[in-house]
C-alpha cells in the first residue's frame, strides 16, 4: 500500500448516507452538506426517508437515505446516482445500492451484517456482496459499531446512546475521503448541542475516530478527493432547506413591509418545519399559533390579516382541501394572505414523505364559485425565500390571498444560500387607505391602476367597515344579492388578479433556434436544466422555459410557447400544467412527459425521452 495517497481534484461528487431511520443519516448528511456549503461548494440535497413512524429495526421498509451532490460551481440536482454510498446495515445496502454508480465506493458497517441482519434484509446467503454483484475492491468494510464502542468506552454513556453515535464515525470517514476540515464539523456539533456540551464532545471524538481510521488504514481507496469552489460570490453563506428559507422569506417580507408576521398553522408532513422555524423567532416580532385543525389555522390567519398583520398559513395538499372554505373567505373579503402548500404524494394521505406536483389544479381551481388566486411555484430550496417574499409582496400590495407551491423535494432538500442584505430586497408597500377617504370610506373602493381595494384595519377612526362571506355591493359595501352587482364583483376580482405584474418568462439554452422547447414549473427546474445541458452537449438544439408565476401567467407566455416548432411539458403529475397552458393559449397542443412516482426526475431518463422528441 502506498505510504501517501494521491489527492485528486473533482468538479463534483454525489454521496448517499443510508441506514435505519434511527441511525442519524439525515443529521450526518446535513452536517456534511453544511460544511461543504460553508467552504463555498455548490450543493443540492435529497432527504429520502420512510413514511413509517418507526419501522422495525433492520427492515427493508425502514431505510432512511440522504443524498448530497457537491460541486465546484453551481449544482442543480442531487444527482441521479452516487459516487459514495454509506450503508449502515444490510437492509440499507440491499435497498440503496441501486442508487450507486457501477464504480462507486461502498462504505459498510460489517458489525451490522450478521445472520439476523441478512435474514431481515432478505439475503439468500451470507455472501451478500457476491449476491448483489458488488466488487470487493470497491468496498470499505469497517467494524464501525465495535470501533464506536471502543472510542466511547469510559465515557459513561449507556449502550443505546453509544450506538446513536455511529453516524458520526461514518461522517468522519467521509470527511477524510473528501478532505473536509473537521473544525467546521466540530463547530456545528457544539452549536447543535450547546445545552448538552458533553454529548457534543463525545460526538466530536467519534467523528475524529472515523477520520483517523480512514487516514491510518487508507480505507482501501486509491485516492482522496478535494472539490475547490469556483466563481464564489462574496458574502455570508449557509446550507438552507426550502422550509427554512420559506420561514426566513416571510420574516424578511414582514420587516420590509413594516408589519407584524402571524402564522396560523396545523402540523402536517412535510410543512411542519415552517411552523417550527418561525416559532423560534419571537425576537423578530413573529407570532405563531398551532391551531386545532387546518381550517382554524387558516381562519386565525384571516383574522390576523383583518387586524393588519402580514398573515400566512402553511400546510400540504390534504390541508389545502380542509382550508378551502376559509381561503374562499379571504378571496371574497379581498384580504392579504400567504398560503404555503408543501406538496406531497396523494390522493388522500397518499405518500406523506414523498414529493409530487399534483396540487397545481387544486391551487388554481379548488374553491367554490369564481375564486381567482395568484399562484407561485418555487424552483429550488433557496428560491423558496424569493418566492414567498414575492407572494407576500403581491398579497399586501394587491389585497389578495396568494398560494405558494413548494414540495417535499425542495422543502426538505437544501442548497448553499448567500444571505441577502435587506437593502437588496424589493420594497413592499401595503395598499392601505389614504387620508382623503376618511369619513367616506367603503371597503371595495378600488385603485384605478391595479384594481386593488384599499386596506383599513379595525380601530382606524373614520374607516369603519364590515367584511364577510356574503357578496357585497361594490359601491357601498352592504350585503347584496343583486345579480348585476355579483357579475361585476366576480369580474373585478378576476381582473385584479389578471393585472398583477409578474416577471417575463425566461428561456434558457438555445432560445433563438431551438428545435425543442422543454416547459416545466416549480421544483423540476434543476433536473430539466441539467437534461437540457446534456442534450445540448450531444448536439441537440434545445431550450427550457420554467414557470414560476402560474397565475397570472407572464405576459410573454403566448409569444414564447408559439416560438418553437416542438414543445414538451414535463411535470410530476399527469398533465396539470399542460392543461392550464392549453386553457390559456389558443391552439397550444404540446407533447407531455409525466411521472407520478413520489421521487425527483432522473436526469438520464429525461435525456433519453427528450432526445427522441428532439429527433422527430
UniProtKB/TrEMBL annotation:
Which UniProt key words apply to this protein? Oxidoreductase
**Oxidoreductase as a keyword?**
yes
Which domain of life does the UniProt lineage start with?
Answer: Bacteria
Domain Pyruvate:ferredoxin oxidoreductase core: where? Answer: 514-586
Domain Pyruvate flavodoxin/ferredoxin oxidoreductase pyrimidine binding as annotated: residue spans: 262-448
Q: Does the keyword Oxidoreductase apply?
A: yes
What the entry lists under Gene3D superfamilies is as follows:
3.40.50.920, 3.40.50.970, Pyruvate-ferredoxin oxidoreductase, PFOR, domain III
| CDD domains associated with the record | TPP_PYR_PFOR_IOR-alpha_like (cd07034)
| Location of the Pyruvate/ketoisovalerate oxidoreductase catalytic domain | 22-212
InterPro entries per UniProt: 2-oxoacid/accept_OxRdtase_asu, PFOR_II, Pyruvate:ferred/Flavod_OxRd, Pyrv/ketoisovalerate_OxRed_cat, Pyrv_Fd/Flavodoxin_OxRdtase_N, Pyrv_flavodox_OxRed_cen, THDP-binding, Transketo_C/PFOR_II
- This chain's protein is named 2-oxoacid:acceptor oxidoreductase subunit alpha
| Annotated source species | Xylanibacter rodentium
Amino acid at each position: 500500500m502506498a505510504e501517501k495517497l494521491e489527492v485528486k481534484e473533482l468538479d463534483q461528487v454525489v454521496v448517499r448516507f443510508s441506514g435505519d431511520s434511527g441511525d442519524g443519516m439525515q443529521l450526518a448528511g446535513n452536517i456534511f452538506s453544511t460544511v461543504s456549503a460553508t467552504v463555498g461548494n455548490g450543493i443540492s440535497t435529497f432527504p429520502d426517508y420512510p413514511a413509517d413512524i418507526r419501522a422495525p429495526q433492520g427492515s427493508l421498509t425502514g431505510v432512511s437515505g440522504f443524498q448530497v451532490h457537491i460541486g465546484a460551481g453551481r449544482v442543480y440536482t442531487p444527482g441521479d446516482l452516487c459516487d459514495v454510498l454509506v450503508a449502515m446495515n444490510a437492509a440499507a445496502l440491499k435497498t440503496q445500492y441501486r442508487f450507486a454508480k457501477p464504480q462507486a465506493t461502498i462504505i459498510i458497517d460489517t458489525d451490522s451484517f450478521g445472520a439476523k441482519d441478512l435474514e431481515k434484509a432478505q439475503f439468500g446467503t451470507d455472501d451478500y456482496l457476491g449476491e448483489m454483484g458488488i466488487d470487493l475492491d470497491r468496498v470499505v468494510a469497517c467494524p464501525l459499531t465495535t470501533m464506536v464502542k471502543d472510542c466511547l468506552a469510559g465515557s459513561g454513556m449507556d449502550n443505546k446512546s453509544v450506538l446513536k453515535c455511529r453516524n458520526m464515525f461514518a461522517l468522519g470517514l467521509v470527511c477524510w475521503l473528501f478532505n473536509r476540515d473537521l473544525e467546521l464539523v466540530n463547530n456545528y456539533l457544539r452549536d447543535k448541542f450547546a445545552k448538552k456540551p458533553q454529548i457534543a464532545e463525545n460526538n466530536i471524538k467519534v467523528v475524529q475516530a472515523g477520520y483517523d481510521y480512514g487516514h491510518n488504514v487508507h480505507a482501501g481507496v486509491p485516492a482522496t478527493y478535494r472539490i475547490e469552489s469556483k466563481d464564489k460570490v462574496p458574502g455570508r453563506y449557509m446550507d438552507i432547506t426550502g422550509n427554512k428559507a420559506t420561514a426566513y422569506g416571510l420574516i424578511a417580507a414582514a420587516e420590509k413591509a413594516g408589519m407584524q408576521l402571524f402564522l396560523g398553522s396545523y402540523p402536517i408532513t412535510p410543512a411542519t418545519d415552517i411552523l417550527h422555524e418561525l416559532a423560534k423567532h419571537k425576537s423578530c416580532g413573529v407570532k405563531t399559533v398551532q391551531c386545532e385543525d387546518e381550517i382554524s389555522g387558516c381562519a386565525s390567519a384571516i383574522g390576523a390579516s383583518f387586524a393588519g398583520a402580514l398573515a400566512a398559513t402553511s400546510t400540504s395538499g390534504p390541508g389545502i382541501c380542509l382550508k378551502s372554505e376559509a381561503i374562499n373567505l379571504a378571496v371574497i373579503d379581498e384580504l392579504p394572505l400567504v398560503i404555503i402548500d408543501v406538496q406531497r404524494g396523494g390522493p388522500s394521505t397518499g405518500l406523506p414523505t414523498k414529493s409530487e406536483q399534483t396540487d397545481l389544479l387544486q391551487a388554481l381551481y379548488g374553491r367554490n364559485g369564481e375564486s381567482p388566486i395568484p399562484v407561485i411555484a418555487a424552483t429550488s430550496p433557496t428560491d423558496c425565500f424569493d418566492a414567498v417574499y414575492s407572494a407576500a409582496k403581491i398579497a399586501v400590495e394587491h389585497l389578495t390571498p396568494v398560494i405558494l407551491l413548494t414540495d417535499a423535494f425542495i422543502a426538505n432538500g437544501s442548497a448553499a444560500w448567500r444571505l441577502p442584505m435587506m437593502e437588496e430586497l424589493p420594497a413592499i408597500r401595503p395598499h392601505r387607505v389614504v387620508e382623503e377617504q376618511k369619513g367616506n370610506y367603503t371597503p371595495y373602493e378600488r385603485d384605478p391602476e391595479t384594481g386593488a381595494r384599499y386596506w383599513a384595519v379595525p380601530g382606524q377612526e373614520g374607516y369603519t367597515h364590515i367584511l364577510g362571506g356574503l357578496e357585497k355591493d361594490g359601491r357601498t359595501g352592504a350585503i347584496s344579492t343583486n345579480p348585476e352587482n355579483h357579475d361585476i364583483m366576480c369580474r373585478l376580482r378576476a381582473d385584479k388578479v389578471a393585472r398583477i405584474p409578474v416577471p417575463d418568462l425566461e428561456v434558457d439554452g438555445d432560445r433563438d433556434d431551438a428545435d425543442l422547447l422543454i416547459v416545466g414549473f416549480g421544483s423540476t427546474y434543476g433536473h430539466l436544466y441539467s437534461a437540457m445541458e446534456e442534450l445540448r452537449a450531444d448536439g441537440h438544439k434545445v431550450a427550457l422555459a420554467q414557470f414560476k408565476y402560474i397565475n397570472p401567467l407572464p405576459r410573454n407566455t403566448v409569444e414564447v410557447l408559439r416560438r418553437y416548432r416542438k414543445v414538451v411539458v414535463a411535470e410530476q403529475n399527469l398533465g396539470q400544467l399542460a392543461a392550464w397552458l392549453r386553457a390559456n393559449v389558443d391552439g397550444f397542443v404540446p407533447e407531455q412527459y409525466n411521472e407520478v412516482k413520489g421521487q425527483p426526475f432522473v436526469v438520464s431518463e429525461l435525456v433519453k425521452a427528450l432526445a427522441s422528441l428532439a429527433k422527430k
